[in-house]
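User: Could you check the structure of this?
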Amino acid sequence: MKRNRKLLAVSSACMIMAASLSSCGDNMHDTASGSYKEESSAYEYYEESADEEFAPEYFSTDDYAPEGDYYYWEEEPELPSANEEYKGYTEAGFKDTKSEPLSTFSADVDTASYTNVRRLIENRNIVPEDAVRIEEFINYFDYDYPQPEDGSAFGRYVEIADCPWNRDHKLMMVGIQGKELQQQETPPSNLVFLIDSSGSMNSYDKLPLVQSAFSMLAEQLDKNDRISIVTYAGSSAVLLDGEKGSNTDEILEQLYSITASGSTNGEGGIKTAYELAEEHFIKGGNNRVILATDGDLNVGASSEEELTRLIETKRDNGIYLSVLGFGEGNYKDARMEALADNGNGNFSYIDSEDEAERVLVQEMSGTLYTIAKDVKIQVEFNPSQVSSYRLIGYDNRLMNAEDFLDDTKDAGEVGSGHSVTALYEIEMADTGDSYHGVPLEFASEHDSIPAENNGRSEICKLSIAYKTPVGNENRNTSDLYSMENYSSSPSNSMKLAQAAAGFGMVLRNSDYKGDADFDTVLDILDQLKVNDNDKINELYGLILDAADMY
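Assistant: Sure, the predicted structure tokens are below.
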């Protein structure tokens, strides 16, 4: 059933939410001229008419609302500020298994795209297609993968199901689960809070939220940790220099003393922050600069290329850079993502105190403590079983097949307890021994036997390569998977990943979205029957809001 909710709602925040959620119920009736809801007198649905230009934006009526309540016309969605910047990329599309059997990509645990898009939708801004990185939509959610066994750094999970937006295809879910460190295993931290205090941060959703976020993190630290605070505007300033993490009062006092004004010399701030991180370096510890900014860097080295060159050498010395994005209007998404990627850190967008708590408190160990670096994932598909495939998302993290075994190639980092999830859309199938120099599992054993008839029943080989965070030892593991991993009744984890990916494809207007639309995604979520998961409930509400906007 199509969910049509062009309506006037009571102007209470909680009533708006209730109206949005209730609109997907079975007691809704849609007609060409208007809509009504049979069981509630709290909302009135009116006929839509081009002649109703006389209607004011707000009006009250004793006939339809209790005294003091107001009805209003839903605001038309708008484009976000032209000053916001997103990097464009092209979807990779389907690959022929016989000619390109290997799919290789860098691990990604970033979630900034999802929370930034959430901000845009909640502000009734049309979502720029380039703001949607589908892998970050997928990886925002928890899939409850089992912890790795036998002391391994990673556990592996593969599930195959029917594709909800293309009935002729299957979906393969690939998950790797990082080992979760116990509290006694976490090393001490040497953290530098690098805070953008320029004039562009003078907004309720920027500097005040930065201060609240870092105060949450500060309260989790102890006497073994070291904290420095650097601010930058026209120039950089050091507010704390290697303070003990247990001195919470002093840390908070300095945090809340910061005010916003001036231009934005990001280069100067980053250099000062690295100098402090080097001065207080903890061997074997978690040495990290955490940059909080809207990305509007306009003094000194400010281009994406200049800034990434600035930090590339630091990561090899064991000092990582994580980035927290804030606010709207000047938001520079591509610049911040590049900084985090090249600094061996995470990129998160903080749009609320709840999100700050999720990133810096609930998932602190994953955000701060790296268990593996330069993590690469490679899937080799068997042409005897799969004729073509496409990796959904990860378009700016694709790697060449030969990069998988090249330990000089930089890739993503995975923190304690973090998982990485990818979806492949595959077309089942009705030569040579290698590809770009990489030995193949599913090569034909004899030149006279074509690769598509190799007699092997496995779907794919999943391989993981990474370096240990201390010592830079190279590790790699691999496992084979077959259609024994297929089910016509997919797990809740698979359904959730399908919904997240489908939502991203619809917002991006992907060339490969097939039959997917907002209703398709809502139907998938309806099957979950999970009522106490805040993330899933929020996703459902976002899809409803996006459907209204579009």
